[in-house]
Amino acid sequence: MIRLAGKVGRTVLTLLAIAATVLASVTVPAPVASQQRVREAAPVAPVAPVPAVVPATQVATPAEMQAIIEGVQAPNRQGLDVLTLEEVMERFGVPGISVAVIHDFEVHWAKGYGIADVETGAPVDVETLFQAASISKPVTAMAAMVAVQDGRFSLDDDINEVLTSWQLDGAGFTDGRPVTPRLLFSHTAGLGDGHGFPGYDPGVPRPTAVQILDGDDPSNVEAVTMVRPPLTAMHYSGGGTTIMQLALTDVFGESFPELMRKTVLEPVGMTTSTFAQPLPPDRDANAARAHAGGQALGDAKWHEYSAMAAAGLWTNARDLARFAIEVQKAARGDPDRVITAASAAEMLSPIGVGDFAVGFNIMRQGEGWYFSHSGGNWGFTCFLIAHKAKGYGAAVMTNASGGGQVFREVMERIQRAYGWDSLDKPTLR
Question: CATH for 12-423?
Answer without folding.
Answer: 3.40.710.10
